[in-house]
Specification:
alpha+beta, Aminopeptidase, 4 helices, 30% helix
Length: 142
Amino acid sequence: MKILRVTNQSMMDETYKVRFDVFVHEQHVPKELELDEYDDQAIHVIALNEQDEVVGCGRLILNASSAKIGRVAVRKEYRKLHFGKAICEELIRIAQSENIQKITLGAQLSAVEFYKKLGFTEYGTVYMDANIKHIHMVYSGV
């Protein structure tokens, strides 16, 4: 398993393929909601399997002293193999290297326990995003 920072358009195209497979095709998120204005400014990472195939991705949006993790996606057949954990740990590491004081994310309710194991805590109330229930979470390990 390798986690790499996206540095060129070819890598970004692979990121989009994973996101569309997971969010648009599998979870039925409208494709017009999947790509947004933050993609150009975010730091993106990809996860590669042993054959150097892109099997997961995530992004980090920096904003002064805070950052938001988002678009964490792992292809179905690679879930439960710690790719998601490695992606998030790398995004947290990047945020910490930028002296970020607060890291947040919007978790699908089905992923709350996953993020709790990484050191995130829920706050606020459940909200809908792309017809999927989410809750805000904040990283308490910074």
